[in-house]
Write a structure and sequence with these properties.
CATH architecture of the domain at 226-419: Alpha-Beta Complex
Largest sheet: 7 strands, mixed
Distance between the termini: 60 Å
Low-confidence stretches: none
CATH topology of the domain at 226-419: Isoleucyl-tRNA Synthetase, domain 2
Length: 867
RNA sequence: GCCGAAGUGGUGGAAUUGGUAGACACGCUAGACUUAGGAUCUAGUACCGCGAGGUGUGGAGGUUCAAGUCCUCUCUUCGGUACCA
């Protein structure tokens, strides 16, 4: 009985068994109900981190559970293999993105295999392979043909010194991360997908995703950001052109005392041209071009603007109002111009005060008398119109329609819907991505590459530029092309590559038929497997990846390629894995192994012996060094213990705080079950598990254990099935194990032994999705043949879940004062009587007459006496 | 800034539709076994108080016989914010 569980022997044994018997290989089987479970595929960064381990463990448990429930389960794995880190690593380590990526893939694949995850590895894909991105290029051509893809000019972060485009994360405080040069906004022609065509459909279906967490659909709705309002035309003074604005508050149009254009607005230059403001405006536009134009970045800068020198006509008042350009107006939202109503919008108010512009009150609630000169903030609420000519006195909410209709009759406006959602810019001026399959011809313009030329291969012999730019434009063998239309020899291939979100928007369909070479996927396979029944991944993808995927399915649906629109029926967004940071005064951030306890018990740096400061618990990241290497865990504890801890430490949707002590605890539990099983094996021989009803059992102890075992089956099944709360499922099994530990096997009678055997076998079945290797091994020791995977999930007996007695909780004025046990079938009157007769209760009631007695008989039986 | 979450013992966390706050585990304390233990087993462990008892789910109010759970306000931390994936 000294023997401990030895993962280093047991785990490879069963991994080999599963592989040999191809237990995870699946094919379409119309006789079985399918279940497609998918975890978000990883970026091959080099090593699996704990966040991956957690994500894939959650998925693996559900997969194994569903298999035991009889489903035909698809559970694939692959690699989101294009992306910026490969380029950075290639520059830093003087290697090639492809070499770096493929190496990472093979080491990460080995790690995943050691974790015992039940993937059908025959379906593995890597998005950087031409066989994959060929079909992405194919789809791009289809979208181009259907006008779902188009080109327009838009801005990128540009470092003049490095001559490169920078990602947002490569811009640090307006400076290039490599050379600290101030970053500029540069205008480039880029490709876009017309996701806005589906804005309404994507929005409406947010409410038809019952399997998604509300927080995700709410975020998506807000991201799409539908707003209803009006589009108004402000005639430019002295010209026939108009400036169009979108506003949700046309009721305030009489208060529009100036106009603001985005600095990128095409009219900014032309309006100021030739005026004395020309230079000032140009300088301002230049200044704004060094400012980050993201929603997050906008907040960092002081709101400011300049007068363009031009005026436009307020369509309601007929007044001349000045046209400004301002840094808080975004070209990408609405029309890139706003009518400014300082009395009704805080930003406009601040702007007006700053530049001495008129603040005219047009809406005020009853009983107020706002004055534009003395107000200290804008009034954004509803009220009644003032200073609005014939509309004075009208309720502002009603005025929205009335004024829009009035302006429409004058030809100056109309009702309009605007979305915050912008079209998806997919062009990346990078090397390590899927080439965009078009050619630019001096004569024919943009010409799609013929389908038969696909894939347009990314040349793998290119060397990266030191400063991070893409080598593709300089690589003649790639960039020079014949025009497919006219045959001109000096046409130029598009050297941009696609956003990596494009690959991840459809990979889950590719898994259904990963080697299919006649299209993106085999329609028959997709018909059987898709959509994904359960998708699992980080909550950080709540908007972009998930929205793009939803969009892509709509595109394929429109193209008639699939018959569904929503890719993921159920979604689980798991929390991050966090750990405390440690810093040494001399050496900065420390890895966990670089800080050790000295004899006094305080943490010191292994390099200099100075005291280590323990910092906040934050998401594990290499830069903060608060990481745990799964390889070390595997070596020390094995896969099953690591899996157990990931599941036990927190429910999946919550952040998980890593704790070495907690892992030790999981290890202890695994060994506790191991010893229990071995002891039973030794002492209970020749018996079969009990399977009758609890009432057939003669001893109270056996009955109690049997009920507990049945309750455990119910609890674990519910927790996995309904909420994925594995932590409570595990604690339920722990409770049962604790009960078994209190039983003396040597003195147990035959009946008891049968119930113990029943309990133990079910513990193994219930734990098998979580501790697959461990449970296989014990199952085998108990003389079973085959894999535990092929067993059915246990059923509990409904007639053996409840005990004969219940505990009644007695409260006086809502405070717990006493408890008693009573026969479960007893009536309410008896409960009241018993409670009132209770000595402790009498003390609290005294001689007062109870005002009210409330008896609750739900999960708990409770009686509250109000005096 | 905007959008979305989360705050419960020394720690991670548990608590259908409001109904015994702290399951289960870590840590700690004590005991047992042991040549030894960082193994194992048993017991105890929210806080204050000698006690009766009181107080407790980030903070402040409110609804209710009853609030971790519902409502209002507020603080802190985290995620996303369109070129990290």
């Amino acid at each position: 009985m000294e023997e401990r569980y030895h993962p280093e022997l047991v785990e490879p044994k069963w991994q080999a068994y599963w592989k040999e018997n191809q237990l995870f290989k699946v094919t379409e089987n119309p006789l079985k109900e399918k279940y497609y479970l998918l975890e978000m595929f990883p970026y091959p960064s080099g090593k699996i981190h704990i966040g991956h381990v957690r994500n894939y463990t959650i998925g693996d448990v559900v997969v194994r559970y569903k298999r035991m429930k009889g489903f035909n389960v698809l559970h694939p794995m692959g690699w989101d293999a294009f992306g910026m880190p490969a380029e950075n690593a290639a520059i830093d380590n003087n290697t090639h993105p492809a070499a770096w990526t493929y190496e990472n893939i093979s080491s990460m694949r080995e790690q995943l295999k050691k974790m015992g995850f039940s993937y059908d590895w025959d379906r593995e894909i890597a998005t950087c392979r031409p066989e994959y991105y060929k079909w992405e290029q194919w789809l791009f051509l289809k979208m181009l043909e259907k006008k779902m893809a188009y080109r327009k000019e838009s801005y990128v972060n540009w470092c003049e010194k490095c001559q490169t485009v920078l990602a947002n994360e490569q811009v640090e405080q307006d400076k290039c991360w490599r050379c600290s040069q101030t970053v500029q906004q540069k205008k480039l022609w880029q490709w876009f997908f017309k996701i806005t065509d589906y804005a309404q459909d994507l929005l409406v279906h947010c409410d038809k995703l019952p399997g998604w967490p509300d927080k995700v659909t709410v975020m998506q709705k807000n991201w799409i950001g539908r707003s209803v309002g009006s589009e108004l035309k402000f005639k430019i003074h002295g010209q026939e052109n108009n400036i169009e604005v979108f506003t949700t508050r046309p009721d305030t149009v009489f208060g529009a005392t100036f106009m603001c254009l985005a600095p990128e607005h095409p009219l900014v230059e032309s309006l100021s041209k030739g005026t004395e403001k020309q230079d000032e405006v140009a300088a301002f536009v230049q200044k704004v071009s060094t400012q980050e134009r993201s929603a997050e970045g906008l907040e960092k800068y002081e709101k400011e603007g300049v007068f363009t020198g031009a005026f436009c006509i307020n369509p309601a008042t007929g007044e001349k109002i000045p046209v400004y350009t301002a840094n808080f107006v975004l070209m990408g939202y609405g029309t890139g111009a706003i009518m400014s109503v300082p009395a009704g919008d805080q930003r406009d108010f601040d702007f007006a005060r700053k530049y001495g512009l008129e603040i005219r009150v047009v809406v005020q609630p009853k009983g107020e008398l706002f004055d534009g000169n003395t107000m200290d903030q804008a009034y954004t609420g509803e009220g009644f119109l003032v200073n609005s000519s014939e509309f004075n006195g009208l309720e502002s909410a009603k005025a929205i329609d009335v004024i829009t209709d009035w302006l429409e009759k004058k030809g100056r406006g109309k009702k309009a819907v605007s979305y915050r959602l912008r079209d998806w810019g997919i062009s990346r001026q990078r090397y390590w991505g899927a080439p965009i399959p078009v050619v630019h011809c001096p004569d024919c313009g943009v010409v799609p590459v013929p389908e038969t030329d696909l894939p347009i291969r990314l040349p793998e012999d290119a060397n990266l530029l030191e400063k991070g730019g893409s080598p593709l434009p300089y690589l003649d063998s790639f960039a020079k092309a014949f025009c497919p239309e006219c045959g001109r020899k000096d046409a130029k291939r598009d050297t941009d590559t696609m956003d990596t979100f494009v690959e991840s928007s459809w990979y889950y369909l590719r898994y259904c038929s990963p080697r299919y070479d006649e299209g993106m996927f085999d329609p028959k396979a997709v018909k059987y497997w898709a959509p994904v029944d359960q998708y699992i991944g980080g909550v950080e993808h709540a908007v972009l990846h998930l929205l793009y995927s939803r969009y892509f399915m709509r595109v394929l649906h429109t193209l008639g390629m699939i018959d569904f629109k929503e890719p993921f029926t159920r979604l689980l967004t798991q929390g991050m894995v966090c750990k405390e940071t440690m810093t040494c005064p001399d050496h900065g951030y420390l890895f966990p192994e670089e800080a050790l306890k000295d004899d006094k018990g305080s943490l010191v740096c292994t390099k200099c012996n100075k005291d280590v400061a323990v910092g906040r618990v934050i998401k594990m990241s290499k830069s903060k060094k608060n990481v745990v290497d799964p390889n070390e865990l595997l070596e020390k504890y094995g896969a099953d213990v690591t899996r157990l801890f990931c599941l036990f430490a927190a429910p999946p949707e919550r952040d998980l705080e890593w704790s070495e002590d907690g892992v030790e605890g999981s290890n202890r539990f695994v060994n506790r079950v191991w010893r229990l099983a071995l002891e039973c094996l030794e002492k209970i021989d020749g018996f079969k598990p009990f399977t009758g009803a609890a009432s057939d059992l003669s001893s109270e102890q056996a009955k109690a254990l049997y009920i507990k075992a049945n309750q455990t089956i119910q609890k674990v099944t519910d927790d996995i099935d309904k909420s994925f709360h594995f932590n409570t499922a595990i604690s339920a099994v722990m409770e049962l194990v604790n009960v078994l530990y209190t039983i003396d096997l040597d003195s147990a009678d035959a009946e008891m032994k049968k119930v113990i055997l029943f309990s133990l076998e079910n513990i193994l079945l219930l734990l098998s999705p979580i501790l697959p290797h461990f449970c296989e091994e014990l199952f085998e020791k108990f003389g079973k043949t085959g894999s535990i995977l092929e067993q059915s999930w246990p059923e509990y007996r409904k007639d053996s879940l409840k005990t004969d007695e219940i505990i009644v909780v007695v409260q006086v004025n809502g405070k717990l004062r006493s408890k008693f046990t009573i026969d479960a079938g007893i009536g309410e009157a008896v409960i009241k009587e018993t409670a009132l007769a209770d000595e402790k209760i009498k003390k609290y009631i005294g001689d007062k007459e109870p005002k009210k007695i409330i008896v609750i008989r739900k999960k708990q039986t409770l009686i509250n006496i109000v005096v």
